[in-house]
Amino acid sequence: MDENALIRLAQTGDPGAFRALFDAHHARVFRLAHRYMRNATDAEDVLQETFVKAYRGLPVYDPAKARSFSAWLGRICVNCSIDALRRGQSWPKASLEEDPMADPPSQTPDSDPERTVRNWETRARVEDALAKLAPKQRTVFTLRHYEGYTLREIAAMTNVTEGSVKRHLFRAVETLKRRLRRFALEDGYGL
User: Fold this and answer.
1) In the chain, how many domains are there?
2) What is the CATH number of the domain that holds 178?
3) What is the mean pLDDT of residues 121-135?
4) Which end of the chain is more exposed for a tag (fewer CB within 10 A), N or C?
């Protein structure tokens, strides 16, 4: 069954259809929430809040509009994440043990522990620099480079024009380059 048919069924109150929509989108929504909240527990809370709000807002959602269901959910998730952060949760330091996207160290005899530690350090510095971006820049950068949304979807999710999305993305990349330049030069990457 295609997504629009599931949406129409869910709008009539079919719990199985809404469950199918949840199953199709919950992993992506969780990853997006985790990028904001930086820990699994808070990301789970945002995931739940996102789908509760989506369920309540489903009767007015129009699949015929240009915004995709995925982008609509993404916007709800971003708003819920920002609201959670405003309620007092800050950007905590990334925990490698809690990060489901972190690559575990290789356990093969050929693994290089020094390289693994260096990769974790690099990841931590990038995440720290990302956390210091202006909120709009961080949102656009995260949606584009971590979640893979198109510029059009990001524009719909953030309620700005595609040109604005491009500007925020450009500024985010330039700021990250500037903040990570010294680190990259120390390691011989040369930005």
Assistant:
1) 2
2) 1.10.10.10
3) 82
4) N
Does 25 have pLDDT greater than 50?
Answer: yes
Judgement on whether residues 73 and 134 belong to the same structural domain of the protein: no
31 occurs within a structural domain: yes
Give yes or no for residue 93 having a pLDDT over 50: no
Domain that holds residue 188: 108-191
φ, ψ at 52 (rounded to 5°): -65, -45
Q: Chain-wide mean pLDDT for the chain?
A: 81
Please name the residue that has the structure tokens 């985010």: 172
Residues 6 and 80 in one domain: yes
The answer on 122 and 187 residing in a single domain is: yes
Who has greater pLDDT, 107 or 20?
A: 20
Where b means 16+ CB within 10 Å and e means fewer, 115-150 reads eeeeebeebbeebebbeebeebbbbbbbbbeebebe
Q: How many Å separate Cα 161 from the centre of its chain?
A: 19
Tell me the helix, strand and coil percentages in the chain, rounded to 5: 70, 0, 30
Cα separation, 51 vs 10, whole angstroms: 13
What is the dihedral sign for C-alpha 108, 112, 118, 122?
A: negative
User: What percentage of the chain has pLDDT greater than the value 90?
Assistant: 34
